[in-house]
Design brief:
two-stranded antiparallel ribbon, 320 residues, 1% strand, homodimer
Chain lengths: 320, 320
Amino acid sequence: MKEYNDYLELVNTALSNLRLPKQPEGLYAPITYTLDCGGKRIRPVLALAACEALGADPMSAIHQAVAVEMFHNFTLLHDDVMDNADVRRGRPTVHKKWNEETAIISGDAMLTTATMLLAIKAGSHLAQALELFNGTAMNIYEGQQLDMDFENRCDVTVEEYMEMIRLKTSVLLGCACGMGALMADATFETQLKFFEYGVNLGLAFQLQDDYLDTYGDPATFGKAIGGDILNDKKTWLFIMALNEDKSGVVKFLIGQTDSPSEKIEAVKAVYNELGLPERIHELISAYIDSAVKCLDSLALQPEARAFFMDLALKSATREK
Amino acid sequence: MKEYNDYLELVNTALSNLRLPKQPEGLYAPITYTLDCGGKRIRPVLALAACEALGADPMSAIHQAVAVEMFHNFTLLHDDVMDNADVRRGRPTVHKKWNEETAIISGDAMLTTATMLLAIKAGSHLAQALELFNGTAMNIYEGQQLDMDFENRCDVTVEEYMEMIRLKTSVLLGCACGMGALMADATFETQLKFFEYGVNLGLAFQLQDDYLDTYGDPATFGKAIGGDILNDKKTWLFIMALNEDKSGVVKFLIGQTDSPSEKIEAVKAVYNELGLPERIHELISAYIDSAVKCLDSLALQPEARAFFMDLALKSATREK
């Protein structure tokens, strides 16, 4: 097994070797711009590491790993149009830097390119790789649609929320792990266990994201704190507070935009009153435990187990 | 060989048997709505007919035919958002009936669904089918981008225009024919000839579309005549007129919106002066001749040859 950064380098090298066409510039320049955004590249790293953990050369999964990363960046690009977001990782979003038409068509081209990458050297695994990839993609669209539907609802349950984040963000981490296992010629059962590990990791990751949006250190987290509260975003914290807050403060503040910092403080006070920061970490721990159970059932070599264990623990305690 | 309408019925039956999920409704209802728009379904019909013309059961290509139709409808959906079009085939476009976010995400789901359909019972042809399909998709995005780039240019050459329509609309007809041939286990050479037939058919088809937008009978054509002229759309007619019109009237009228019917009449007068209606039909005939040459080189059975011959001749003389 390698270190995280070694896998990251393999991914970044493969990305810089993509050599997309140059023309028409309006189609391809935004793709390069989007991929240049950096980021942790956790999905392709998971794919390569899963592949190596099962005894294969991680490079057997490199094209599929890059396909997953390409797909992820496509979803960010189209999500930014749908959310009308101005900034992503400190840079203007594609539809701000260029325009909306460009963001739509370049995103479409990224989705097709992802499918093309998936097929490179997939050999006898092509049909299964495609099935895993496309099934995951449909889940992600469903999750994104549910997330948009939740904006107009005040009766979202915690169960609905967990299903939404499972679809929207977690299955892609599962897909990355399962893809690495598939490319390592693993059995379907092993692929499935690695998939489940990734889904649990993703759920823990997303819940920690919800936590950090309210409780993170702005300097470390890299974006303004309290954005979810200001936008009445139906996160785990917000839904729990809506359900349990007898004072009615949270419900009352929905749609209020006059005093942003007071709104954040008032909602946060309810979260604290209800012990939600501790309770969300109990939940995160439970998902990490599930991820570890999947790892244990895989009976990996100690070094490989440690790699995935470390990732799971870090995602539960990360501060950015 | 069957009649056009028999293939059409096979396609429509397959489309109505798709059984997409019902939830989330915001994601799937727009897909059903888009597919319900009717239309000639020329692409999937070409795929089934090509398959049967080469001696195979047309149903061997049914999933791939429907994949091509799904892809085509996805491009219409996203094009309508990019063009901000209100109406498609007499009904509100998806982004008008729902909203833009819905149109984007439902379109993405259609593209992934198309790839899923492509893989069904593709067997040993999967890798090739995917390569043909994805390569075609990239061409189409490039064509769409060029079309958007042309909006802001007055120096578009006829060669650039022909390349744009080849990419944006013709290769998909080529892909449909090639896909049918592939699913009939044809040699690569045969697939390629059928592909070329489709591309030439598509070029003739698009040029006739340009012609009808100015010279069609509004009652038959189904939309207002002169829309391309009003929007200064860089069609073959418009580009030729820009190049050859010594009076400078066409160039002068670019951007003018005050007197729509006068503008249409003035530009049309230049077209007539330059003999463009006759010249575009000479060009259309040349593409039909090329399509027929491809057919001849395929040495099909007389009945099969007649089917594709008939389609080619009809697309050159169609009035809607």
